[in-house]
Specification:
The structure holds two protein chains of two kinds. By secondary structure, chain A is of the alpha/beta class. Chain A contains nine helices and ten strands. The longest helix of chain A has 16 residues. About 2% of the residues of chain A have low confidence. By secondary structure, chain B is mainly α. The mean pLDDT of chain B is 93. The chains are: A alpha/beta, B mainly alpha.
């Protein structure tokens, strides 16, 4: 039987790679590598990666609330040192199955038949999945960067739908689900550069506890005031939590990194059953 | 105020090198392709990102527009012009 075998959340801040202030990013790159190691240890065969468009892919003429790509993908299309734009192995069968399933489950997904993905999908695909291409990607874009935003409750329920879809798929797909996004960050506004560790901790606590309620009761206004417009990406975390309801999370790393503009959190949300993945990795957290 | 028209022009200049070159070479002709009134054309021509933000335009789009025209090193200059999100939210409350 196919199953979701684990969830992860990770940032995709381009400044980690551009690193204009030349700060030490080793702990952050280690955290990406640790997710890659755990994905391999879970013997995953596919990854559903949920990210936001940053007004790079979709123009004001067409802004999908939820979009799944059924065909070939490459990326990230934005130039990031150390993260080359190249083809990303994809799983068209799983993508098509999720699309078909969703239509009978209350979600009408927009479709792309081939996509150059931006850093939201490209960074986790290139850094968190095995380099041998053994884990195939299904990319999902969720409206978290450009309004109108997907509602928080809807994002959570979307995660639940993904689990039901995967479990209804024939075969033995072992699927990990990624919520790609930074925690607190202000993008393009006068506050840009500010990080809100209190808000970051609040979000990470919810992930660790497996209780989505504190996040689901936030209003968009509260998120923006406490965590910035970039923090609207916590929708992606909620989708992962909705895919694994009640599952406890583990913070792998947290850094309000001075080289960037984002509260950078890396977590694993453990699927039920024996906990896989815990090994010798030294958790790294830095409190501001 | 045509938010959709303004957003489209910012998107095009921010994301397309061809659009940027076209705008740089013949700004009046380029702006004339979009359904903008006089005030809107002026806001774009003056690169008045602060006022465009107050009008409700997405700050990611504004940042991309400004960086597209002036390059990534203009980020401090851009941020110096921009109001805070908090002030914007308080203003529209």
């Amino acid at each position: 039987m196919s199953a979701i075998v684990g969830g992860f959340t990770m940032p995709h801040d381009p400044l980690v790679f551009i690193n204009p202030r030349k700060k030490d990013a080793a702990a952050l790159l280690d955290a990406y590598a640790e997710i890659r190691r755990r994905v391999a240890e879970l013997r995953a065969t596919s990854a559903i990666i949920i990210g936001a468009d940053h007004y790079i892919l979709f123009s004001p003429k067409c802004l999908p609330p939820l979009l799944i790509c059924l065909g070939e993908i490459n990326g990230p299309i934005d130039q990031l040192p150390g993260v080359p734009n190249k083809p990303i192995p994809h799983n068209p069968e799983l993508a098509r199955h999720i699309f078909e399933y969703s239509q009978n489950a209350g979600f009408d997904l927009a479709v792309s038949k081939g996509l150059g993905v931006d850093h939201a999908i490209g960074v986790p695909a290139q850094l968190c999945l095995p380099e041998d291409g053994s884990v195939k990607t299904v990319p999902v874009y969720m409206a978290s960067g450009v309004e109108p935003y997907v509602r928080l409750e809807r994002a959570y329920r979307f995660g639940g739908m993904l689990t039901a879809a995967v479990e209804a798929m024939e075969g033995d797909e072992r699927v990990v689900i990624f919520g790609s996004g930074g925690i607190s960050h202000w993008v393009g506004t006068g506050e840009m550069g500010k990080i809100a560790p209190d808000f970051d901790r609040f979000v990470l606590d919810a992930i660790e506890s497996g209780d989505a309620e504190p996040l689901l009761t936030l209003t968009d206004r509260e998120i923006m005031l406490r965590g910035g417009n970039g923090a609207m990406e916590i929708r992606h975390y909620l989708a992962v939590m909705g895919a694994l309801p009640g599952a406890r999370g583990e913070v792998l790393a947290y850094h309000p990194w001075e080289g960037g503009v984002t509260g950078l959190g890396f977590t694993q949300i453990h699927a039920a059953g024996p906990v896989a993945g815990q090994g010798a990795f030294q958790r790294s957290t830095v409190e501001a | 105020m045509s938010l959709s028209g303004l957003e489209q022009i910012l998107f095009d200049i921010g994301c397309s090198g061809k659009a940027r070159r076209s705008y740089a070479e013949q700004p009046e002709e380029f702006l004339g392709r979009y359904p903008l009134d006089e005030d809107e054309r002026r806001l774009i021509a003056e690169e008045n990102v602060a006022e465009l933000f107050r009008c409700g335009l997405n700050p990611m789009l504004l940042m991309g527009f400004y960086m597209g025209l002036h390059g990534p090193r203009s980020m401090p200059e851009y941020l110096g012009k921009m109001p805070t999100l908090q002030s914007q939210m308080e203003a529209v409350q």
